């Protein structure tokens, strides 16, 4: 039996992957350096939640650490525990705060909880009474109505003489809800509110801006910025050309090419009827890979998706998605390509250097963030750096 197998060629997981993702770590490092420069006097942190936006927290975390990042943000403590090995001297903030039962995970990995509610604060005060001083961060909600204590609660806490001496906040942060729209007056309102709160916490580092906020100018930078999507090459700010380098390229393998005459239909529901004799490329990617069903070329009524759906890219051509995207397969229209240009086994680019992540996401009524974090599941990943680029 084994002798039989010995004759078979070694399989290269990436070169034969149904769907694959190439991550350019050099571009990631350069994007961080660029955002650090744009952050002016503030330090630039790095947000690596959701497995570094789907691109891999280990490799991306190490790259950002080596580029100079020392303040990392994750959503949940398990992400922080994974990151710790790759960012040994960094401060790692956990945005969802701490819950009873998670104490050991935090202490063993030296994670800093971002406290965001009165209940969490009460739990924290009782914990530090037991364990002694331990750093924490405080999230203040200045208008998002998501996580955070209210500004007046924060100010009361700052002046509360009965709070334990071991209470040691090292960062006070808030989050802007409309920073991607630079002229929105709500940005200024949140800024004013944040300034009032931070004045009550003199000497403690302040952080207001994620990627988009960095582009709002120095008033918004404070001591530390928290870029996420822009590190990974996504669009942070509307109305300007995206200045970041693309970091990720997603590709799917073509499994079959088929000819179909005008009048036939394609995919579930027969939702797309061909208006010309067509050459169809069947790609090995579907919504189970995070290629959102709303990117379908037909048959998916959605609030903001564009009716014609997404396109793929191959060799200078843009190939429209035809009919509904299915769990594991997607049909692209290859009719405009020269007959032998695209063959079974070739890879079609879903997004990357030739097809902007955000353009594809928009076609499905979505945003780059969602597409990027969804696409990681079944993809084979390859990391490239200095010697190669996307
Ligand atoms: C996700 C997140 C960020 C990063 O946001 P981007 O828009 O991806 O730069 C920063 N701060 C908080 C609180 C977040 O939840």
UniProtKB/TrEMBL annotation:
This is Alanine racemase. It catalyses: L-alanine = D-alanine. Belongs to the alanine racemase family. It is an enzyme of class 5 (isomerase). It holds the Pfam family Ala_racemase_C. It comes from the Bacteria. InterPro entries: Ala_racemase, Ala_racemase/Decarboxylase_C, Ala_racemase_C, Ala_racemase_N, Ala_racemase_pyridoxalP-BS, PLP-binding_barrel. Residues 247-384 form the Alanine racemase C-terminal domain. Substrate binds at residues 146, 327. It comes from Rhizobium helianthi. Transmembrane segments: none annotated. The modification N6-(pyridoxal phosphate)lysine is found at residue 49. Catalyzes the interconversion of L-alanine and D-alanine. May also act on other amino acids. PANTHER family: ALANINE RACEMASE (PTHR30511), ALANINE RACEMASE, CATABOLIC-RELATED (PTHR30511:SF0). Its cofactor is pyridoxal 5'-phosphate. Pathway: Amino-acid biosynthesis; D-alanine biosynthesis; D-alanine from L-alanine: step 1/1. GO terms for molecular function: alanine racemase activity.
């Amino acid at each position: 039996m084994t002798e039989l197998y010995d004759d078979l060629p070694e399989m290269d997981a990436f070169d034969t992957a149904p769907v694959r993702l190439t991550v350019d770590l050099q571009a990631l490092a350069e994007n961080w350096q660029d955002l650090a420069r744009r952050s002016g006097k503030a330090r630039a942190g790095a947000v690596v939640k959701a497995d570094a936006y789907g691109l891999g927290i280990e490799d991306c975390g190490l790259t950002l650490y080596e580029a100079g990042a020392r303040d990392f943000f994750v959503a949940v403590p398990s992400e922080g525990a994974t990151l710790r090995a790759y960012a040994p001297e960094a401060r790692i903030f956990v945005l969802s705060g701490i819950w009873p039962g998670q104490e050991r995970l935090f202490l063993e990995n030296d994670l800093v909880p971002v406290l965001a509610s009165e209940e969490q604060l009460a739990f924290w005060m009782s914990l530090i009474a037991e364990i002694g001083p331990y750093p924490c961060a405080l999230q203040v909600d200045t208008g998002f109505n998501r996580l955070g204590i209210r500004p007046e609660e924060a100010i009361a806490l700052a002046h509360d003489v009965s709070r334990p001496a071991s209470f040691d906040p090292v960062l006070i942060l808030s989050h802007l809800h409309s920073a991607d729209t630079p002229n929105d007056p709500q940005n200024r309102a949140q800024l004013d509110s944040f300034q009032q709160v931070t004045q009550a916490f003199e000497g403690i580092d302040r952080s207001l801006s994620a990627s988009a906020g960095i582009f709002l100018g120095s008033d918004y930078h404070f001591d530390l910025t928290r870029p996420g999507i822009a590190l990974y090459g996504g669009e942070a700010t509307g109305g300007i050309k995206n200045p970041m380098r693309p970091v990720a390229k997603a590709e799917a393998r073509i499994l079959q090419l088929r000819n179909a005459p005008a009048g036939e239909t394609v995919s579930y529901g027969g939702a797309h009827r061909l208006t010309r004799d067509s050459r169809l490329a069947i790609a090995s990617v579907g919504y189970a890979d995070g290629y959102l069903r709303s990117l379908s070329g037909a048959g998916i009524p959605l609030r903001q998706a564009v009716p014609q759906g997404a396109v793929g890219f191959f060799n200078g051509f843009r190939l429209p998605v035809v009919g509904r995207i299915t769990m594991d397969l997607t049909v692209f229209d290859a009719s405009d390509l020269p007959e032998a240009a695209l063959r079974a086994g070739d890879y079609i680019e879903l997004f990357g250097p030739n097809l902007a992540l955000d353009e594809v996401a928009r076609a499905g009524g979505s945003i780059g963030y969602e597409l990027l974090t969804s696409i990681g599941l079944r993809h084979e990943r390859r990391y490239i750096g200095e010697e190669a680029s996307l």
